Amino acid sequence: MGLPRWKGGAPFFHPGSPMPECLVFRVPAQHPADVSEVMGLVASGAVDVTEIVAIFGKTEGNGCVNDFTRQLAVMALETALATALGCTAAEVGARIALVMSGGTEGGLSPHFLVLARRDGPAVPVGKALAIGTAFTQEFRAEEIGRMAQVEATAAAVGRAMAEAGLTDPADVHFVQVKCPLLTSA
């Protein structure tokens, strides 16, 4: 699952070529299954659905073990994006990183951050936002927090760096890791 998912399996960025443009959109959600603003970005032409590499979301759930809103948001995104991409919902989840966080008490409001990469005019020389994604295999409960997970996550970060065209770990300033919510069961 850690193979790049762009350009027919080749890395999106090729060293020596212009850096791709990275796009970040923040759109509101009226409820966990409301993906209308995400799909509105596609319909308006602001982003091509094939450019989307990740979507982070904040849902209105409580963030606890019984919070169904994260999975509801993922299901809604997978369904809508599958139609737009011409693939199955399961294929969307293997192609686009969908990471939801529940709990919007206080000053937060439900929203999605849509991250995309676009081939096009060269970004000015120098450092800029770069986005790479990678996935690990699914882990058994007894592997969570153990060296197998640590090593697989480190390898995935290395693949994401390569996909983003980064070679120096000092250039990495944020890594989003999606992990399961553990229960006592």
Annotate the secondary structure layout:
Elements lengths: L20 E8 L7 H9 L7 E8 L9 H17 L3 H7 L1 E6 L8 E8 L28 H18 L21
Parallel strand pairs: 2-3
Antiparallel strand pairs: 1-4, 2-4
Helix pairs in contact: 2-3
Pick out its properties:
60s Ribosomal Protein L30, Chain: A, 16% strand, 4 helices, alpha+beta, globular, four-stranded mixed beta sheet, single chain, 4 strands, 185 residues
Explain the overall architecture:
The protein is 28% helix and 16% strand. By secondary structure, the protein is an alpha+beta fold. A 4-stranded mixed β-sheet has the order 1-4-2-3, with helices on one face. The radius of gyration is 17 Å and the shape is globular. It starts with 20 loop residues before the first strand and ends in a 21-residue tail after the last helix. The model is unreliable at 1-12 (pLDDT under 50).
Short description:
The protein is α+β, with helices and mostly antiparallel strands. Helix content is 28%, strand content 16%.
